[in-house]
Each structure stands twice: as structure tokens, then as C-alpha cells.
Write the C-alpha cells for this entry.
Amino acid sequence: TPQIRLFQDVEIWGQRGVAQAMTLTVDEFVSPQSPFMLLLRHVFFEIYPDSGSFDVVVFASVGVSRVKNLMMMSLRLVLPDIVVDTERVEVIRDFIVRKFEASTSEDIQNLAVRLLEENEHNYWRDIFVSARHGGVLMPLNDRTSPAPLKRPELRPLRPVGVLRFNLLGAASLEQVRQSGDLANVEW
């Protein structure tokens, strides 16, 4: 099977209608202090315990899905130093879902409640999208609605930054790049 750099897509649905803004923000998921990223860092070091550190390149998109007429937040988390095949991607996704579902962290449990308040379909198993769930969307590009709409969604994946997961010394999570630090071609 072909090998790819590890990525995980996260899709969070909002309420129906264009005027309805999401109550959850990208920063709540991808800031270095976010419970979401802190748990994700822990999960990846469980999977790759011998890694001292690795970077996570974060892209985000927020807007209305023309197909469902719902607000939608999409996150693409790319771990460029980890190369996997498509079978391994699915195993990793399932492991992440199990860890989030089993988390006893009050912050993660509160986030799970807020996700379901945002939309009844925002369960962990549903927001962590399977790699089999569709084609690859390139950063800085937009999705196109399927037929019969066949129009851009006007929600391109934009760079948020690069986070570094550290396990050496005191475990940490730091932002090493912000969206304006690199030219579009470098992302």
C-alpha cells in the first residue's frame, strides 16, 4: 500500500443556516493550552513512545457546508515526520477515538458535551474523520460541492501554525510557527 505522511482530519458540525455562528472556535482545539491538543500529544506519545518530539502542522477552515447547509469547522493535523500506510492511519484513528472516549479529564468531558450541544452528530468517533472518508484536500485549496451543486464551498484550509509535541525533559506543547511566519508556498 502507498505510504503517506500521517494526517488526521477533524470535522465539527455546527447549527443549520448561514447566519448561525459556531460557539466553538479553532483556538479551543489547536492552541498549545487546549485540552484537545494536550490529550492528542499524550496519545501520539503512547503510539510513538521513542519519539523525543515531533511537529504538528495545523490547517483550519470554518464556514457553511453547501451540501448540508450547516456551519462546519474542519481541522487538518499533519505530522510530517511520521510516515504510515493507509491501514496504519485507520488503526491510529481508532486508537485516538478510544482514548478521547475513555478520557476521565473533566476538560475533555466538558468539551464532549459542548460538541454535542453544537450538533447532535459531534461524537468523537464522528469528528475524527476516517482516511477512507474521501479525497485529499490540499492546504490553501477549497472543497467543491458534489453534483448537482459542483461549486466551491468557500472554506479553504488555511494555515494556523505548527505545534511541537515534546516528550524530552519536561513534556510540553509549544507553538513554533504561526500562520504569517511562512509564505503560502512553504505551507
Q: What stands out?
A: The helical segments are 26-30, 35-47, 86-102, 106-118, 124-127.
